[in-house]
Design goal:
With 146 residues, this protein is an alpha+beta fold. It has a single domain, classed as Alpha-Beta Plaits (2-Layer Sandwich). The protein contains four helices and four strands.
Length: 146
């Protein structure tokens, strides 16, 4: 069985919070959807037969206002075509980089009450994911790997 990796573990979130909150960050998102969304029994969409992709689309819709309010924007999005280096069979249904004006803006988003409601769709939708905080490197000219 695949480790879920849907929400951060406490130690991971504490490590994130310990990093500077006053500079631009990029968050690399790699997401694999469930075949069928798995909502909590008391959620209004429980048992409705939504796919993971449909539930993730609801997450995007319901979190968009908060994402924009904190200054977030998508700076890169792609569709996976093939694994060139990595585990056989690993696939990602959604791949994107979200930019936030500061680490604090990301914290504002994830603690916002409207976002906390929207994230229930993400939790129902996602089989596994990776969320990796990155520091953009503006000094690179794009001509090399280092």
């Amino acid at each position: 069985m695949t480790d879920r990796h849907v929400d951060p573990e406490r130690a991971q979130f504490d490590a994130f919070k310990a990093l500077p909150r006053d500079r631009v960050i990029h968050m690399l998102n790699l997401v694999r959807f469930r075949d069928r969304a798995d909502y909590a029994d008391d959620h209004e969409l429980a048992g409705q037969g939504l796919s993971g992709a449909e539930a993730y689309a609801l997450y995007g819709r319901d979190s968009a206002a908060t994402f924009r309010r904190v200054g977030g924007r998508i700076v890169w999005r792609a569709a996976m075509e093939a694994m060139v280096i990595g585990p056989d069979g690993e696939r990602w249904d959604a791949m994107f980089i979200a930019e936030y004006p500061t680490g604090g803006a990301f914290m504002d988003m994830v603690t916002d009450p409207a976002y906390r409601q929207a994230v229930k769709h993400r939790q129902a939708a996602v089989e596994t994911s990776r969320l990796i905080r990155c520091a953009p490197n503006a000094s690179q000219d794009g001509t090399g790997f280092a």
